[in-house]
Amino acid sequence: MLPAALRRWLHRPKRSDPRLLSQFFFADERVTRVVAEINGLDAELDPQQYLVLLNQLHLSQAHLLAVIERIMEECIPTQRHSRDYLVKFPEELLVDNLGNHMLFAAECLLAGTFIEVEEAEGAQLRPRARNLLCSLELVRTVLREQSLSQPGTYPEPVRAALVQFDRLFAEFELSYVSSLVAVKSPEEIYRQQEIIVLFCETVERALRSGYLTQEMIDGYEPLLMFTIPRLAIISGLLIYPEGPLSLERGPEQMSRVFSPFYNLLKKIRDLLRVLSAEELCLLERSLCAAESEDPRGPATPPTWGAAMPGASPPAPWGLLEAPHTTPLPHTCTGRLGPPDAVESPGTDSPQPPRSSPGPRLEAPPGARWSELRSHYSSTKDMLHTLFVCISGVADQLQTNFASDLRSILKTVFKIVASQGDPSEDLGTSKEDGELLVGDAPPVADCPLCHSPTEGAGLRRAGAHGRPEWVPDSTCSQCCACRAPFTLLRRRHHCRSCGKIFCARCSPHTAALPHYGQLKPVRVCTHCYAVHLSPAPRRSRSR
C-alpha cells in the first residue's frame, strides 16, 4: 500500500469536483489547518491573531458540519434520527448554526471549561459530549479515506459511522438544550396548537364582523400582533368556553401562556357575561384600535336607570356565535331571542337558532347581574376596566411569552393569509397552446436604479424570461425604505425587478405581459412609477 502522504497527493480531489465527498475533503482540510495554526500560536503574545483564528475555526467547522449534513441526507436519508424534539425548543434557539453551537458546547464540556450548566448536569452531559466528539472524529476519518479512494460511493462502514454520529448528535442536542432552558412538554405543545386554532377562529370571526380586513392580514400590519390576542381572549372566554381558555379546569391544565392569568381571566369572563351585544361590539372595536378609545360614544347615557328611568338595562351577552354559522351583519344591534335559543345547562353544545341570523341574548340573571354592574359608576367605567384588563393580559404575553406568542402568530398568519395566485409564481399564461409574451414597455434609463443599465436590463429581460429574484436569505431589510424585516414586516418580491420590499413599498399590482404575467401581480412603487406604462397599472392599496 502506498504511504498516506503519497496517496493523498495522487488521489487528491479537484476543487471543481461537485461531489459531496470532494467538498468534504477541502472543508476538513481547512479545519485541520486552522487547528494546527491555533496550536502553534502563543495566545498571550498575539491575542489579536488568536481571536482571528478562533473566528476562522468557528466558520470552518460550521461549513464542515453543513457538508456532513448534506452527505447524511444523500447517504442515509431513511436512517436519520428523528428531530421531532425540535418543536419543544424556544424559537430563538432554532438558528441555522445550532449544530455548530452544540459542537462548541461539547468541546467546552469535555475540556472542563466554564459553561452555563449546573455541575451535576455537566457531569451527566460530559460522557455524551465525549461520545459525540469521538464519533465526529471517526466520521471525519472514514469520509476522508473514502474521498481519496472512491468519492462517488458510500460503503457500509461509512453509513454505519454516519448513523451513529447522527444519533449521538441528536441525543446530545436534546440533553444539552433541556439543561439550559425549559423545553415544552408534549401536553404543552398540544395546548399551544389549540391556541393556534382559537386564534384562527378569532381572525375569521373578526373578518366577518368587520373588525379586521384581509388586506391588513396580507400586509402583516404590526397592530395585529396586539389585536389578535386581545380578541382571542374574548372568543376563548365567551364563544368557545370549552376551548384552550376554559376556566372549568384548573390553571395547571391550561397552557403556560395563559395559566399565570387564570384568576384575572375569571374576573374578565364574569364581566363579559353581563355585557349587552352593543357594549361587547364597542369593546371589541376599541380593542382593535391602537390606543384606548371611549368604547361607548357621546350619545350613550352614563348610567343605567338614572338617565333612562323608563328603560330596562340591556340583556347580558349570552350565546354569541357558534363556529361556522351564518355570518353576522356588521352591526352592533342585539335583540332578545326566543327562550329555547339559549344554551341549556345540561347540554354539551349550544342549540341552533330558530330565528334569523343575529346575536342571541340570555335573560338577565338578576341579582348577580346587578351586583357586578353596581361595582362601577357607569357603563363607560366598566368597559374601560375590561379594556385595561384584556389589553394588559394580551400585552403581557408579548413580554413574558414572546417566543411562544411569536411562534403562534407566525403559524396563524400562514393559515389565514391569502394564498398567492399560482399565475404569479408560474409567470406564464397560455392561450391556444402558445405563450403570450409582449414587448417590454419602452422606458428610458432610470437614474434611481443602482446602475445606469439596470433600467434597460428590465426591458431586455422580457425577451428572455423573468428577472432573477433576490434570495430571501440575502436580504434582511427593505430595498427601498431600509426597514428591517421582522415577523410582521414580511418580505415581498417585486415581479418586475425581482428585489425584496416591505408591504408599504410594494402596494401596487400591474400586469407584466412582457414577462408573461397577464394578470396583475405585485410590483414595487419604483417599478410601478418608472418602468411600467400606465395601461396595465392597478393599485392594490386602499
Detailed description of the structure:
- By secondary structure, the chain is mainly alpha-helical.
- 47% of the residues lie in helices and 5% in strands.
- The strands form 4 sheets. Strands 8-7-9 form a 3-stranded antiparallel beta sheet. A two-stranded parallel sheet has the order 1-2.
- A hairpin with a 6-residue loop joins strand 5 and strand 6.
- Helix 2 packs antiparallel against helix 3, helix 4 crosses helix 5 and helix 10 runs antiparallel to helix 13.
- The longest helix is centred in the N-terminal third of the chain and has 31 residues.
- It starts with a helix and ends with a strand.
Task: For the structure shown, list the relevant keywords.
disordered C terminus, mainly alpha, 542 residues, globular, single chain, three-stranded antiparallel beta sheet
